[in-house]
Amino acid sequence: MSEIRFSLPSAFSLQPSDLVAIVGGGGKTTLMFALANALPGRVVTTTTTRIFAAQMKLSPEVVCFTVEDAEGNEGFALSASFAVNISSALDRFRQCLVVGEVMGEKARGVPPQLPGQLLARPEVDFVLVEADGSRMRPIKAPADHEPVIPPQTTLVIPVAGVDALDGRLAQVAHRPERIAEIVNCQLSIENCELTPEMVAALITHPEGGLKGVPPGARVIPFINKVETPTQLDAARQIAHLVLRSPLPAPHIPQVVIGAVKTNQPVREVHRQVTAVVLAAGQAKRMGQTKQLLPWRETTVLGQTLRNVKGTAVHDILVVTGHEANQVAAIAQAEGVETVHNPQFETGEMLSSLQTAVRALPEWVTAVLVMLADQPMVEPETINALLIAYWQGQGELIAPEFGGKRGNPVLIGRRYFADLLALPPGSAPRALLRRYADDLRLVAAGSNSVLQDLDNPKDYERLTRHPISRLK
């Protein structure tokens, strides 16, 4: 397996002064303490629900909060003694757990206003809050009074264990009746088995994973307990569906896949990738518009789009130019959107890519630059580039075969400004040359990444159709 280059803090894009609320099921407490151990600076962990004694032992220091520790009738001022206890614990251990009244084998949660007050203190860099309970089940739906998310929260992490797919809803879920209603399960909870589609629907539902998210807070789901190839395939399906879901606010920028109890807590971070298919060219060497030529049961462009649709990209955008109406008709037949490049006659490839990048919404983090005349590139090759990106192996990624770089190429958003600044007459490969040390090459299974349809001989060799008969 390739080296994974995400830590827990980087996977969730954590920044100093973040207040993180963890909800759902499937390992919230374990995730909270794993994040606390991985974060730089001083971290307060706490809960607005309850926590058990065995879980409290995961923290090097426990500070109890009582009603006497909140002073004043206005706001939520902390008593001097409580503040001293927090500062002392952080000086000694760099982190501490704050709980409410301890009753036997468990402790009460703290008021939802307290985490924000703690984060406002100069000695506190992060506050992590377990804001939900799930009775140790891998998945849950919140009750009317749940979750208890602090109003100052900046990041909400809905957690779901992938092992929720391993049994019947009644066995794997907390509040299974609510889940069945949210995901529209037509079977009884004793007979219903969750699917990746159902888990994604729960995560993205306003009465599920998005319930109670404060305005302006980010949402990054975590698919936990992913250890086997089968579980990884299922988690990828869930992440893909979450990122493609037509969500209400707030927007979900990424989905983290991992197994927090293992030595590889983060396996992949899925972010939105748009495939940009460059189909504006005039194909002067071919003698006619090559993207419109027959290919199998469709056209060259149609087959390219079908191959891309068989991958894990989240959106596809075709750039039109020469014979735009015919090209757009093929894209429309495949359910793909288009954008027109009015400068296609000069600098077609670069100007087309720049046109597409300018049209992308801000949450798209990378483009997969696909040539319209590469219907030979297999979906497996494209997915290999996406997986390398989601594993943090780079933001400039291309396939190689026989020691030669091929196409398509994945370009991350960090390079968009440089791409847009390339002058007329240049080409996208100029960006790759400029950042040659950043380029990550992924082995392709065939030489299809090196092939395109530049001239009639290429087309005739690959299709066995004499080009003269098609004019």
Fold and architecture overview:
This protein has 471 residues and is of the alpha/beta class. The protein has two domains: 264 residues, 3-Layer(aba) Sandwich (Rossmann fold); 195 residues, Alpha-Beta Complex (Spore Coat Polysaccharide Biosynthesis Protein SpsA, Chain A), CATH 3.90.550. It is built from 16 helices and 27 strands. Strands 1, 2, 4, 7, 10, 12, 14, 15, 16 and 17 form a ten-stranded mixed beta sheet that branches. Strands 18, 21, 22, 23, 24, 25, 26 and 27 form an eight-stranded mixed beta sheet that branches. Helix 8 crosses helix 9. The longest helix has 16 residues. It is elongated and about 85 Å long. The two termini are 49 Å apart. The model has no long low-confidence stretch (mean pLDDT 90).
Largest sheet: 10 strands, mixed
Helix content: 25-40%
The helix-and-strand class reads: alpha/beta
Can you name the CATH architecture of the largest domain?
3-Layer(aba) Sandwich
Structural shape? elongated
The tally of helices reads 16
Radius of gyration: 26 Å
Low-confidence stretches: none
Distance between the termini: 49 Å
Using the coordinates above, name the CATH class of the largest domain: Alpha Beta
List the domain count as a whole number: 2
Identify the quaternary structure here.
Answer: single chain
β-sheet strand percentage: 15-25%
- In CATH, the topology of the largest domain is named Rossmann fold
